[in-house]
Amino acid sequence: MMGLMRFINVFPKVCSIFFLLFSVAANADAVNGVFNVKNFGAVADGKTDDAKAFVSAWENACKSNSAATVLVPEGTYVVSLATFTGPCNAPIVFELHGVINAQPGLNTVDKENWIVFKYMKNFTLTGDGVFHGQGSTAWPQNVCSKNSDCKLPISLRFSFLNDSTIQGIQSVDCKFFHINLLGCYNLKMRNLNISAPKDSPNTDGIHIGQSSGIEISSSVIGTGDDCVSIGQGSRNINITGVYCGPGHGISVGSLGKAKDEQVIGLTVRNCTFTETDNGVRIKTWPDSTDGLASNFTFDDIVMNNVGSPIVIDQQYCPYNKCNLQVASRIKINNVSFTNIRGTSSTKDAVSLVCSQNFPCENVQIGDINLVHNGPDGPAISTCSNVKPTLVGQQTPPIVV
Ligand SMILES: *[C@@H]1O[C@H](CO)[C@@H](O)[C@H](O)[C@H]1NC(C)=O
Ligand SMILES: *[C@@H]1O[C@H](CO)[C@@H](O)[C@H](O)[C@H]1NC(C)=O
Ligand SMILES: *[C@@H]1O[C@H](CO)[C@@H](O)[C@H](O)[C@H]1NC(C)=O
Ligand SMILES: *[C@@H]1O[C@H](CO)[C@@H](O)[C@H](O)[C@H]1NC(C)=O
Ligand SMILES: *[C@@H]1O[C@H](CO)[C@@H](O)[C@H](O)[C@H]1NC(C)=O
Ligand SMILES: *[C@@H]1O[C@H](CO)[C@@H](O)[C@H](O)[C@H]1NC(C)=O
Ligand SMILES: *[C@@H]1O[C@H](CO)[C@@H](O)[C@H](O)[C@H]1NC(C)=O
């Protein structure tokens, strides 16, 4: 009886000493709110999988009640798969100075994810470091016609982030897309350098879906697919000061596969496209569901030897796997193209092919000067199911 009483008495003390020791240990791993991955076991030898150390540094930082930074110092790390999840107790920064390599080849731990940041507000990813997806070790072996399980991971996923900033970092040779945004609200992306070879498959630079208030500025994107693609549920997207190329350009869509797809509010301004297949493009599937693409401004854009600088394609049908006889049901309106100049590598400098059943409305074309130099004659424009309002001077002339 006596013994038990003593135990009950002592128990809280033992507990609090234990707690004290534990928190001292946790604090020893963080100096002034900086959680260095090396203090959590990362070895940076370019071989060892440091995933556990990264996630452990993150989890400790995320629990901090004051602003915390996860620091990845210079060095070469291998991370197989890492999910950095919030919500965190305070604003949190992931500061990358090293190079993080994915595992090479097709046998990734996860078929869809590599590095994931999700469920946070006031998050910052910054630094001059590199996320290297090792894509070249996977692209040639990944033949979907021979292997139906041909999914490859997206390098960086930002999902459900609010009031956050992504800046400075590089993404190189993703296996699938470089960056995917889902459910983000008020996100700024600046000074990014995104690169993969021009013949690399499906290596979209930044794909935006179900997100609003997104700003992409002062960035260089050269890749094998769209530099930026803007999908279903995107609103209030600004893209400024972006150099795109090589790649397929900046594209809205393709819209119309799923129910009621909408993209509303996009500005692309002060951007340069070099040697891209397309410049600015809106694409929708034929035989589609209802949907809306509205309030787009394309302004102050330079095209250097771009395949198709200005495109609306409501008969988008790659591999001919759709019914071109049935018109798209996506409504496109309030679109302006102004101050777009440079060279087109094909004759088709301006191609606005709208839906027969839902013609494009309120399309404005301002000053345009797109030149094609080739044996096949000067640049031309094509318009169907659209009567654009013309303001200023257009080369090629817009023929309705
Ligand atoms: C982000 O903002 C949305 C809309 O305001 C809100 O519903 C959501 O809970 C927020 N998420 C986080 C992680 O703060
Ligand atoms: C985010 O956190 C920083 C401090 O790290 C603070 O200055 C800033 O106001 C916060 N922003 C928002 C939108 O909460
Ligand atoms: C972007 O990154 C690529 C690959 O690391 C590099 O070759 C290129 O110089 C970088 N560009 C800029 C503008 O930093
Ligand atoms: C986009 O730019 C417009 C003005 O051009 C501005 O009103 C809007 O707030 C900006 N949105 C974002 C997300 O930066
Ligand atoms: C256009 O973008 C370039 C490259 O980011 C930047 O240096 C320049 O200041 C921008 N110009 C304007 C008028 O915003
Ligand atoms: C497009 O912009 C106009 C003018 O700013 C606004 O009145 C309209 O509601 C916007 N359209 C949509 C679908 O949000
Ligand atoms: C198109 O723009 C006009 C004027 O800015 C606006 O009143 C209208 O709501 C817009 N239409 C859509 C579908 O956004």
Topology record:
Layout lengths: L1 H27 L1 E2 L2 E3 L8 E5 L1 H13 L4 E5 L3 E3 L3 E4 L6 E5 L2 E3 L11 E9 L1 E4 L3 E3 L21 E14 L2 E3 L6 E4 L2 E6 L2 E3 L10 E4 L2 E11 L5 E3 L3 E11 L5 E6 L5 E14 L3 E7 L6 E16 L1 E6 L16 E15 L3 E6 L7 E5 L2 E4 L8 E5 L4 E2 L3 E2 L5
Parallel strand pairs: 2-4, 3-5, 4-7, 5-8, 6-9, 7-10, 8-11, 9-12, 10-12, 11-13, 12-14, 12-15, 13-16, 14-17, 15-18, 16-18, 17-19, 18-20, 19-21, 20-22, 21-23, 22-24, 23-25, 24-26, 25-27, 26-28, 26-29, 27-30, 28-31, 29-32
Antiparallel strand pairs: 1-2
The chain binds 2-acetamido-2-deoxy-beta-D-glucopyranose (7 copies).
The site of one 2-acetamido-2-deoxy-beta-D-glucopyranose has 6 residues, from β18 and β20.
Structure characterization notes:
By secondary structure, this protein is mainly β. The chain has two domains: 148 residues, Single-stranded right-handed beta-helix, Pectin lyase-like (Pectate Lyase C-like, 3 Solenoid), CATH 2.160.20; 175 residues, Single-stranded right-handed beta-helix, Pectin lyase-like (Pectate Lyase C-like), CATH 2.160.20. 10% of the residues lie in helices and 48% in strands. The protein contains two helices and 32 strands. The chain has a 32-stranded mixed β-sheet that branches. The radius of gyration is 25 Å and the shape is elongated. The N terminus is likely disordered.
